[in-house]
């Protein structure tokens, strides 16, 4: 079982993942060919020569990016508690001022500004935790970085680790204030000793910086589930699920398969009730803005999250029983059970609950509700909450049982 021993991570529940890099310029299409896979993989999947891919940097000028607005919205409108941005994805391009490689946003683009610095200042202003994604094994730009499903023979991976990966991680940890976590990903081929080198480096600079479950060889500080994978039962310990709103991470102009707000709310609550954190991704465009449809969905989810924050943040996982009531998700903390009503109904019926009830009320308004309890035997019973007429046609509200 993984235990971060960090309360902020256990309480956080909902974070923002940002996949942003040069792939956002291609937006799923290169020279008229569409990629049928996730957009940030286009260089690898369409075999774009490194020299050609590098030239994309000359076009990267995200003048629509406003870190202040971004972070403010993530916190206040979407209700998220931490942000993890791709400092360097598999393409090898650094979204910050790196002295280690000129293939970075400050040196190689007309934009010329350090995106991570902008994000850091905004996160500090709004008191939002900031973490960085860093692709530690795959680097399609470096001659010694790994590539997926390509010939990696003859590469000196240790040289890449020593000359690019570790020096860049050092930069990230030394120049951008407190980093809540480094989100290492796809640790293909990395040995136990090399994983330990990364861990030692991170902890020697920022001992409190957490390492994702994909650091390598199960040596991270918490568990990372598969992408978009929600377990049916709670996992023990600390864990997080990386997830998409559509079907890609980086921006893809063809992918309009946006999940509905109700679906995201239900996923979030399932994850929270099972004890995990939901790290939900947006893929900004090359201009630095989030697609409108994605914003609409996250705004709607954000209304639920901010109105019912008590029933989400700082809650602790419930037992197995909780997960099988259609249209209802349950979350809880000591002495409080939160019943999230996600489809219309006339009453809430909870079986196999023998606890005494002190009160039932709508969490967002405080409106008291009629309830009855039935004791079957010592330690077992049932609770019924009759919903008033006006609530019976409604969904997406939360009832607190004390
Ligand atoms: O290959 C990456 C992918 O591009 C994306 O970053 C996701 C996020 O979890 N991780 C890898 C695939 O699992």
Automatic annotation (TrEMBL):
Enzyme Commission number(s) of this protein: 3.2.1.51
SUPFAM superfamilies with a match to the protein in the record: (Trans)glycosidases
Residue ranges constituting the Glycoside hydrolase family 29 N-terminal domain according to the UniProt record: 5-310
MF (Gene Ontology): alpha-L-fucosidase activity
InterPro entries for the chain: FUC_metazoa-typ, GH, Glyco_hydro_29, Glyco_hydro_29_N
Keyword Ligase applies: no
Gene3D superfamilies assigned: Glycosidases
Domain of life: Bacteria
Coiled-coil regions listed: none
Keywords: Glycosidase, Hydrolase, Signal
Assigned protein family: Belongs to the glycosyl hydrolase 29 family.
PANTHER family the record matches: ALPHA-L-FUCOSIDASE, ALPHA-L-FUCOSIDASE-RELATED
Function text: Alpha-L-fucosidase is responsible for hydrolyzing the alpha-1,6-linked fucose joined to the reducing-end N-acetylglucosamine of the carbohydrate moieties of glycoproteins.
Name of the featured protein: alpha-L-fucosidase
Species whose genome carries this gene: Blautia caecimuris
């Amino acid at each position: 079982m993984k235990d971060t021993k960090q309360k902020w991570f256990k309480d956080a529940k909902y974070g923002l993942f940002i996949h942003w890099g040069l792939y956002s310029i291609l937006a799923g299409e290169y020279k008229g060919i569409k990629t049928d896979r996730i957009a940030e993989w286009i260089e690898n999947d369409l075999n774009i020569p490194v020299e050609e891919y590098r030239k994309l940097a000359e076009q990267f000028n995200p003048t629509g990016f406003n870190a202040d607005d971004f972070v403010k919205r993530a916190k206040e409108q979407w209700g998220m508690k931490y942000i993890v941005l791709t400092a360097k994805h598999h393409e090898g391009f650094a979204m910050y001022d790196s002295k280690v490689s000129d293939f970075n946003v400050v040196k190689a683009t007309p934009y010329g500004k350090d995106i991570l610095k902008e994000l850091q200042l905004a996160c500090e202003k709004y008191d939002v935790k900031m973490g960085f994604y860093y692709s530690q094994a795959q680097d399609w730009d470096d001659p010694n970085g790994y590539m997926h499903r390509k010939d990696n023979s003859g590469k000196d991976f240790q040289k890449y680790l020593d000359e690019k990966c570790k020096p860049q991680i050092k930069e990230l940890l030394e120049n951008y204030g407190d980093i809540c976590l480094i989100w290492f990903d796809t640790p293909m081929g990395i040995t136990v000793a090399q994983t330990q080198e990364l861990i030692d480096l991170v902890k020697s600079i920022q001992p409190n910086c957490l390492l994702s479950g994909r650091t390598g060889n199960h040596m991270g500080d918490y568990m990372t589930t598969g992408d978009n994978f929600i377990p049916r039962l709670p996992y023990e310990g600390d864990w997080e699920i990386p997830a998409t709103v559509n079907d890609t991470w980086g921006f893809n102009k063809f992918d309009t398969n946006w999940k509905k707000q109700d679906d995201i709310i239900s996923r979030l609550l399932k994850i929270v009730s099972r004890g995990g954190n939901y790290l939900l991704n947006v893929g900004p465009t090359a201009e630095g803005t989030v697609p409108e449809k994605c914003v609409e969905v996250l705004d709607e989810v954000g209304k639920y999250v901010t109105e019912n924050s008590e029933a989400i943040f700082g809650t602790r996982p419930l037992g197995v029983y909780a997960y099988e009531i259609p249209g209802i998700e349950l979350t809880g903390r000591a002495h409080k059970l939160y019943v999230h009503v996600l489809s219309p109904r006339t009453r809430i019926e909870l079986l196999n609950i023998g606890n005494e009830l002190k009160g039932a009320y709508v969490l967002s308004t405080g409106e008291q509700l009629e309830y009855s309890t039935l004791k079957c035997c010592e330690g077992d019973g049932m609770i019924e909450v009759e919903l008033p007429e006006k609530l019976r046609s409604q969904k997406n509200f939360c009832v607190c049982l004390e």
